[in-house]
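Journal club side-thread
Mid-discussion, someone asked how the predicted structure for our own chain would compare to the paper's figures. Pasting it here so we can look after the session.
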Amino acid sequence: MTVRKAWLVGGAVLGAGLSFVMLLVVGVYVVAGNLANGVGGATKALAKGSVPAAYQALVQKWGNLCAAINPALLAAQLYQESGFNPKAQSPAAAQGIAQFIPGTWATHGIDGDGDGDRDVWDPNDAIPSAAKYDCTLASYVKDVPGDATKNMLASYNAGAYAVIKYGGVPPYKETQNYVKTITTLEESFAAPVTRVDPSKQAAGAIYYAQKKLGTPYLWGGDGTAQDGGRFDCSGLTKAAYESVGITLPRVANDQWNAGQHPARDELLPGDLVFFSDDLTNSRAIRHVGIYVGGGYMIDAPRTGAVIRFDPIDTPDYFGATRVTEDGAKALPTTV
């Protein structure tokens, strides 16, 4: 519980086999590893489509309200709170896209769109209010040593008094986990400013998926004995990364947030590649595969088909995610 809730393509490719894929993985991995420098030092813009189009302008504008926040951080909080669902309501009575409880909303809710009311269910009010609330918390702890953003997030979770008392993020496991979760999720909403570090588990995930080539598709399939060893698209990618110790969410549009998003010309084998009929909204993603190089992925495409190699360069290509262990751990279990 957060403080907002409480405290304030074909057979030719298939024939190439494991050696081709592993050579691609190793070769591209080494090159990318030599080039990767990580992300930092620049203002964080939103990754393409990471915030639903209806809210992108709001998040971009209000995410720059003060120095302690940025659009990607604000997006991470909204995703963590509600999955961008403006009708979300928790058992603790937290309401709307930003999950304010009534008492906190009464104090910190603002009329973000200037229409004369403060409506917790209206994202045009709730998103500005979330940013304003973050900045208010940041002002409470502005004289505390350390990272201003982490101190603000700790205040959000544990209260400003605890941050002031301990001179920074307090030694509470829940608070420390919350700070790490949001700052990690932040990276999945930010457009990378340099090459993204390659995943160390990528080759193993591909190896798992390749062993499943030819397996019939099953909607909802997780590859269990009950499923006859069959998968759907996100069931396959989840199982592939579980084989190397990374637990992904079950559905494709949540798997999108398991790491940063390399550009098309920066793809590495092991990246998850996503497809959608709405290229402005990651919540509308409907298909995922595992990139293997050369413009191809392994995927479980549809009922009546088998797990196979398919091209990724189609009109519905949405983007890619470089899965990380921390990124996967940061994802909420329910949104």
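Post-session note: The chain has a mean pLDDT of 89.
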